C-alpha cells in the first residue's frame, strides 16, 4: 500500500519565510558576483526546490494603499535564492535547467503589480503618465488570478521566474560594469538613471562570509535589474513552468540563482513592477552538456517553452509604429521600443473606453498574458510592433461592435494614502 | 442539381497579369494620396477579389541568380491594387475589412525572399553583414512552401497582405511628409536614407487622369515603405487570411488599397524583402461602423487574428538584450530593436551550426513563421526580445542534444551571377 | 522578371465539370475494385491536382428546397476521381500521400449539408427524429462558411477529402463482401439496410472498358459508404489540407482514388450527409516507403494532422453516457455510439434553447468544427463521450449565464417543397 | 509589508492522510445516496480545498510488483471526499463548480497506472490480452510525469478529478438501480459483470451515523464505477484544473462529492485503472444558478474546458473502424467502441515496433494525453474513431520514416511477483 516510506518528497534546498525581510534570511543574495560561495550543491538529475521571497524582499503588503510601493528601497531588491552549484559543471559547459514548477506559497495566495514613481524605479510610461505609486493585489485561486483592484478579469497564470541565471566570471562581471558605466556617463543626471551601478548600500549575501570577501562582493557585485548574457532578470513570461532552459556556464559549479517569481506577466512587463510578483517555490532539475557553449554557439540562454502555457486563441490586436502618436507626433528611426509603447497606449486607451482607469489598464497589461510581437522592423523609418489582448480573460464581451463599447464602472486600483494620483 | 446558374463566383474588381510590369497595368498605384480616384466602388457586405502583382511589380524571376534583386528599382515598388471605395464610408468611420483569403495565382505557384544590398534597400543586417544581393525561390505546394535554395525545411504559410490601408486625408499626408522630412534632415547623407520622401520618378497610378492631377499626386504622394496610422506596409504576419481588421477612415469612401502579398513571413521580416513575396489574389468583405474612430479610440488599425494560422507548438527560443554582443559589445539604452537583432543573430549562428550559410539562415528567419516577442522592456538598460524557431518546419531534429548539433550540407541560396557574396 | 515561362502550374490529372452529372464524365468511378484500370499514372514526388465532383455527382442545387436531398439516388453516389497509379508502388508498400490543398471551385463557392430520410440513407437520428429531408446551403467566403439557412454562425473550414483510399486487392475485396453480407444477413429487412452490398444498378467507371471487365467490376465492386482498411470513406475531419497520410498498398501502382470533398465537418458527421459537401480540387503529392506495411504494422492508414486546422480554443462541452436519457432511459453496455448520441442530443437541446430549430441544430453540429472525444470507455456499463462546441463560431455569446439563454429567431433551414418536416 | 496576518490561505474542508486506508478516515464515502449527510457546508463564492485519497484508498504502493493491483478489493474503491453542501442550492438549480486546481500531495509525488485482471475489474482489452496484473509507477516532477516502468516518455499532466458529481435524489437513485439491474439480468454470469449493483460489503461512509441510516445507505447506495446523469466517474481528462462545470442539482444543498484524482489520462482510460491515479488536493469554488436545469436543458453536466491543458500540436493519428481487424475480422454495426479498440490496437502495435512491450504500450496510452476523436458515425456499417499520439512526449523521434522504426529496449513494466504475464 501507499506509505510514507515509499513516498520521497523532493528536497527543499533553500527555505525562506515570505513574511520576514530578505535581509534577515539565509540563502538569499542580491548581487551577481563570481565569489559568492555556493549556498548548496546539487547533483545533475536531482529534482529540488528553492523557496523564493518576492522581489522586494517582503516590502509589499496585501492592503489597499500603494504607500509601500512608493517607498520600496530599490538598493535591496531582487533577493535571489542560491547560488546553487551543480556538481561537475565547468566553464564552457551548458547548464540545462528544467523549470518543473513555479507555485505560490499555500499560506500566501496573493501577489501584486505596482506602478513605481519616476523618482523611484519608474516604468515604461513613468514620464508620459507622471506616474504616482499605485498597485493591484491579485488573489490566487488555483491556476487563476483575479483582483479586487481591477474587476472584470480573471486569467490563468503563465508562472515563471522573472530572474534566473548562472554566476558571471570575473571577466564577464568586469565587462558588465564597464559598459553600463559608459552608458551612465553618457547621460549624466538622468532620472531614473540609465543603469544602476554597483553600490554597497543595500547589498546582501545571506551566508557567513569573511569580511573582506563580503566587502569585495558588495563593492563589485552587479545589480540585478537588467537581464544579461547569463540570463538574469530577463522577465520572459514564456520561460515558464514546464520549460527547459540552456545556460552558459562561466565558473566552476555554474552557481545558479533564481528569484523574482511571477504568477503571471504580459509581454513587456510594462509598469516595471509589472508582473504579478509573488513569493513562492520553484522546482528545478539540471543536467550538464559538456562544451555546450561552443556546441550551441551560446552567447545567451536559449530555451524550449512549456506545453502548459495558457491558451487564449481569440485576441484583439493593437498596432504601434515608431511615431509618437500619443505624444508630440515625433518620427523615430526604426525604434521598436517606441512602437511597442504606441501599441500599448492604443490598448490602454481602448480599455479606458471600457471603463478602466489609466492606472488599472496600465497594471492589467503588465500582469495579464498579453502577447507583443515585433511585426516588422525593416520598413524605414517605422518599426511595427503589435500587442494582443486575450479576449477570454474578460468577464464581458469587449469586441468592437456597431453599437460601440459599453463603459462600466470598475472603481480604481490601490493608490497612495494621500490620494495623489 | 448543381448548375452554373445557381453558382455565382465572387467578382474580381481588379485584374492584373503577374507577368507584366506593373507600370503597364490598370488598377495599380504606388503612392498614397487622397486625390487618387477610386478605381472601383463596392457596397458594404459584398465579397470581392483583388488581384495583386508582387511588390516589385514583376521585376523578380524564378531563377537561380540574385541579379534581379540587386537591380530592383525601388522608386517603382509597392504597386497596390485599388483604391477601392466603400459606399457610404465617411471620415471618422471605422472600415471593417474581413481578409477572407489570400492565395497565389494558380499559374504562378512560387514566390521569393531577397536580401538587398546596403546601397539599394538594405535590410536589418545590411551593415553588419555587408550584404550582397541574394535570394531564395519558394515553391508553393498547396498550404506549404519549400525552397531549392534552403533545403531541409517546409512550412505552412501564414498568408497575408504585407500592405493594406485606407487613403490618407490631405492633412494626414502633410503630417507624414513633414515628420519624415525632419528625420531625413537630421541624418544628412545616411545610407540607406532614414526615410524615402515623395519623388516623381517611378510614381504610378494606373488610371486615366488629368495631367495636373497626375502631376500633383506624383509630386506629393507618400512613399509606401513604412506602415503608418492608416495601416499601410505594416508587414504583420498575423493580419492573415481569416482576420478582421478595423481601419480609420480619413476620406469619403475610405479608398482602400492593398498589395505586397506574402505567402509567409517571420516576425520582423528581417531581410527587408523578407517575406515570401508573391503575386496573388486577395478576397475581401467590408462593413462600416459609423463614428468608429471615436467609438474605439482608433489612432491606428486594430484587428482580430485568424483562427487558421499555422500552429507549431514546439519551439526553440533565442533571447536577445540591448547589448551588441555580436558586434562591439556596446550597451544600448532599452533599445528593443537592438535586442531583436541580438536574438536574431543568436538564432542565425545556431542555424549555421546546422550547416546553413549565413545568407540561408537570414532568409529563412525572414520567411518562416518565427515568432518574436517583446519579453521585457523595463529592466534598464536592457530590453529583452525573444525569437522562437518552430521545430516542426525542419525535416530533421534540430534540438540541442548532448552530442551537439549535426552539421549538414545545404548548399547555398541564389547569389549574384558575378559570384560576389 | 516573372514570366509565364518560369512559372509552371501543377498539372491537373483529372478534370471534371461540377455542373454535369457524374455519369457523363471521365476519370470518375463509384465502386472499389482491383480491376478498375488506373486512369492516370504519377511519379513519386510529383505535385498534381484532381478535380472532384461533389459526393452525389451534382444531384444537389443551390436553392431553398430539400426535394433534391429527398430524391438522391444513393446507388450512384461517391463518384471518385481516379484511380491514380503511383509509379513503382507494390503490394506491401506504404503509400505516403501529402494532402497539400483542398479548395472549392472558384466558380462554385458553395456547398451543402443534408438530412436524409430514414428510407433513403438515414442518419444518426433518422429514427429518433423521424427525419424528413432538409438541407442548408453554405456560402464560401474565403476560409469561412456561413449559411442563410442557419444564421448567427460563421466558421473557418477544416477542408478535407471525406473519402480517400488505395484500391483493394481481390482478396481484400472478397473479405469485405463476405463480412458485410454476414451482417446484412443477421438483420433481414432492416431499414436502412445494415450495409449496402455490391449492386450493378448505378455502378459507374468513367473509362473505356471491355464489356466483360465492366460487368465484373459493376457486379463485384464494393460500395463506397463505409471506410475500410484501405481508408475509403472515413470522413475524418482532421485528415485535412496540410496532413500527411500513410496508406497500405494492396495492388501494383496502389491506385489511389479520392472524392467526397468537404469544406468542413464536425466529428461524427451526424446527419450522414453531414459535412459541408462540395465539388472542388485536391492537390496531392506522393512517395513510397518500400515494405511500409510491415515496417509500421499498417492494418489501416495512419496520418500526421495539419498545422493549419482552425483553432477555436474556447468551447462548451456536452457529456453523454451509454444510457438513452433522451429516449426510453435504457441502459446500454459500454456503447460509445449511444454515448455520442446522448452528448449530441444534449447539445441539440441547448441550441434549441438559443432559438435554432432541431433541424438547424442537427445540421450545424454535423457541419461545424465540433470535436467529439471518447472520454472513458472502461467504466461499466457507461461509456462516456463528449462533444465540444466552439464558442468562436457564434456571432453572439452563448455561454450559460445567470440570466439564462437568449432565444433568438433564426428561421428555419431548407425543407421539402410540400412543407413536410 | 507581507505578513501572515494579511495572507489568508484557502481553507481545507476535508483532510485525509494518503498513507492510511480510506476506511479509517473521516470525510470519505464510497457510495452514492441522497441520505448521506453533508460532511461540511460551503457558501457560494468561497474557495476551498478537499484532500482526496487515491481511488483505491491507499491499497497501491510505490514498488516494482503488481501484486497489489491483482489484489485490489473493488468493493471498497472510489472513496470520495464529501459530500459538501452548498448553501442555498435547491433541486432544479445548476451548481457551477470551478475546478481551480488539482495537485498531488507534496509528500507523495507519485501515482500509478494499473492493468487489472479479467476476474477483478478487467479493462478494455482484458479479454483480448488475457491481461495479468501489471502496473507503472509515475514520478511527478512539477508539471511532468515520467516512469521507470515506461522509459523514453515524459509528459505534462492534464490533471483532473476522475470523479465528481452531485448527490442523486431518491428517485434518480432508484432509476439507476433499476436500469443497471436489468442490464445485469440480461447477461447472467458475465465476467466481469456488466454492472456492479449495490452491495453492503465494502460500503463506507466516514461519518458518525445512526445505524439504521448507515444500513440503508450501504444497502441501497449506488456503486461508483460508471459516470451517470449527475457526473460521477466520467473520467473526462479535459474536465481539468481551470475548467468550469455546470451540474444539475437533485437534492437540497447539492451535496457535491469528488475523488479519484488523476495526474493525467488519455481519452478512453483504456486499462480501467488507466489514468495516473493519485492522492491529492483539489481546490474548488461554487456558485448557484437558480433553475439552471431548465434554463440550460441540463440532463447531464456541461463544462468549459481549461485554458491550461497541455498543448502538443504534433501528433501521429491511428484510425479504427468497427471491424475486429485485430481479432476474428468480424463486422460490427456502427459500433464506436469496437472502432476505438481498433485504433488503440493499431497504436499499441506501432509502439511495440518501437520496443515497448504490449503492457507498457497499453499503460502508456491509458495515461498519456492521447486524444481520441469520433471521426464519423454514420457510414454504415463502419463507425470510424481515431486515436492521436502526441509526438512531443517521446524523447526520440517516432515518426514513420523511410528506414523504418528504431526498436529500442525499454525493459518491462511492473509485473506480478510470480512472474506471470
Ligand atoms: Zn523581473
Ligand atoms: Zn518581477
Ligand atoms: Zn511589406
Ligand atoms: Zn513584402
Ligand atoms: Zn463521406
Ligand atoms: Zn461527404
Ligand atoms: Zn475514474
Ligand atoms: Zn481513476
Automatic annotation (TrEMBL), chains A, B, C, D:
Signal peptide (UniProt feature, chain positions): none
Q: What is this protein called?
A: Acetamidase/Formamidase
Q: Name one Pfam family in it.
A: FmdA_AmdA
Q: Name one GO molecular function term.
A: hydrolase activity, acting on carbon-nitrogen (but not peptide) bonds, in linear amides
User: What domain of life does the native source organism fall in?
Assistant: Eukaryota
User: Source taxonomy lineage?
Assistant: Eukaryota, Fungi, Dikarya, Basidiomycota, Agaricomycotina
Give the matching InterPro entries: FmdA_AmdA, FormamaseFmdA
Amino acid at each position: 500500500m501507499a506509505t510514507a516510506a515509499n513516498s520521497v518528497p523532493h528536497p527543499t534546498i533553500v527555505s525562506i519565510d515570505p513574511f520576514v525581510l530578505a535581509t534577515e534570511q539565509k540563502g538569499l543574495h542580491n548581487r551577481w558576483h563570481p565569489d559568492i560561495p555556493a549556498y548548496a550543491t546539487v547533483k545533475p538529475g536531482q529534482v529540488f526546490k528553492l523557496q523564493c521571497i518576492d522581489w522586494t524582499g517582503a516590502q509589499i503588503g496585501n492592503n489597499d494603499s500603494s504607500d509601500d510601493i512608493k517607498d520600496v528601497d530599490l538598493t535591496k531588491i531582487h533577493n535571489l535564492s542560491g547560488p546553487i552549484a551543480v556538481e561537475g559543471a565547468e566553464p564552457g559547459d551548458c547548464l540545462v535547467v528544467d523549470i518543473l514548477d513555479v507555485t505560490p506559497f499555500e499560506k500566501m495566495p496573493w501577489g501584486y503589480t505596482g506602478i513605481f514613481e519616476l523618482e523611484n524605479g519608474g516604468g515604461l510610461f513613468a514620464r508620459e503618465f507622471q506616474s504616482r505609486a499605485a498597485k493591484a493585489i491579485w488573489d490566487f485561486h488555483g491556476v487563476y488570478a483575479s483582483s479586487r483592484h481591477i474587476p472584470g478579469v480573471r486569467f490563468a497564470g503563465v508562472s515563471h521566474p522573472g530572474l534566473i541565471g548562472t554566476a558571471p566570471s570575473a571577466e564577464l562581471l568586469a565587462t558588465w560594469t564597464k559598459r553600463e558605466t559608459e552608458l551612465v556617463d553618457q547621460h549624466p543626471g538622468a532620472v531614473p538613471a540609465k543603469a544602476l551601478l554597483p553600490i554597497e548600500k543595500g547589498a546582501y549575501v545571506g551566508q557567513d562570509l569573511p569580511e573582506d570577501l563580503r566587502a569585495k562582493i558588495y563593492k563589485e557585485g552587479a545589480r540585478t535589474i537588467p537581464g544579461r548574457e547569463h540570463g538574469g532578470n530577463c522577465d520572459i513570461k514564456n520561460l515558464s513552468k514546464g520549460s527547459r532552459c540552456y545556460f552558459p556556464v562561466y565558473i566552476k559549479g555554474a552557481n545558479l540563482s533564481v528569484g523574482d517569481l511571477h504568477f503571471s506577466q504580459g509581454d513587456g512587463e510594462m509598469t516595471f513592477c509589472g508582473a504579478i510578483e509573488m513569493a513562492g517555490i520553484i522546482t528545478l532539475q539540471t543536467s550538464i552538456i559538456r562544451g555546450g557553449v561552443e556546441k550551441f554557439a551560446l552567447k545567451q540562454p536559449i530555451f524550449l517553452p512549456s506545453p502548459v502555457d495558457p491558451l487564449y486563441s481569440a485576441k484583439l490586436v493593437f498596432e504601434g509604429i515608431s511615431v509618437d502618436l500619443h505624444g508630440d507626433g515625433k518620427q523615430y528611426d526604426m525604434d521598436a521600443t517606441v512602437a511597442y509603447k504606441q501599441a500599448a497606449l492604443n490598448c490602454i486607451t481602448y480599455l479606458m473606453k471600457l471603463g478602466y482607469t489609466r492606472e488599472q489598464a496600465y497594471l492589467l497589461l503588465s500582469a495579464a498574458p498579453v502577447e507583443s510581437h515585433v511585426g516588422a522592423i525593416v520598413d524605414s523609418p517605422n518599426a511595427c510592433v503589435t500587442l494582443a489582448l486575450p479576449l477570454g480573460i474578460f468577464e464581458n464581451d469587449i469586441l468592437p461592435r456597431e453599437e460601440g463599447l459599453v463603459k462600466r464602472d470598475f472603481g480604481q486600483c490601490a493608490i497612495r494614502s494621500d490620494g495623489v494620483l
